[in-house]
């Protein structure tokens, strides 16, 4: 077998003597390398882009801590609303019972209480309970809701904070503090990113 035979498939490539290094210019692919590739094997993949939020494009996959806190505060407000509704219902029943008691007709303090219609207390009881149910709804939807839930939570928090200042300044102080924190946590940039995340 001769290496000089140009038809020999096992011989040295044309223009290259056996036992001598390749005379190809540097930077050129070697014998048998695919043309246009930097070397043997698969083409190189493009570099990975650094994605925010741990490599998941489009938004955080875990609920931010502030949004979690806002959710808990919504449930706390709901609990306070239920307690308030129970107390108001007891007050409405007590007022109605006092109106039916003839022995209290001559009491001055009772006359002031009797002037207060029990229907207003029942309406306030239903309103307080409905506000608590709305807080539960918002807290439950924070995990899966979109930007509409975020806006609703902020509006809820602002109205709750205002009502906590007036007319319920003494009993509404806890509501005011919690509502302000809810509005801040939901309104921050990480909260906006959570509610605007893509949903598949």
Commentary on this structure:
The chain is an all-alpha fold and 200 residues long. It has a domain at 65-195. It is 54% helix and 0% strand. It contains 6 helices and no strands. The protein has helices at residues 65-99, 108-114, 118-141, 147-165, 173-187, 189-195. Helix 1 (65-99) runs antiparallel to helix 5. It is rod-shaped. This is Integral membrane protein. Residues 9-22, 31-60 have a biased composition (Low complexity).
Beta-strand residue fraction? under 5%
> What would the average pLDDT be, to the nearest integer?
76
Helix share bin? 40-55%
| Category by helix and strand content | mainly alpha
Q: Helix count?
A: 6
Rg value? 38 Å
Question: Largest sheet at a glance?
Answer: none
Protein name: Integral membrane protein
Keywords: Membrane, Transmembrane, Transmembrane helix
Task: Tell me the layout of helices and strands.
Layout: H1 65-99, H2 108-114, H3 118-141, H4 147-165, H5 173-187, H6 189-195
Helix pairs in contact: 1-3, 1-5, 4-5
Quick structural gist:
With 200 residues, the chain is mainly alpha-helical. The protein contains 6 helices and no strands.
What key phrases describe this protein's structure?
200 residues, mainly alpha, 0% strand, transmembrane, membrane, transmembrane helix
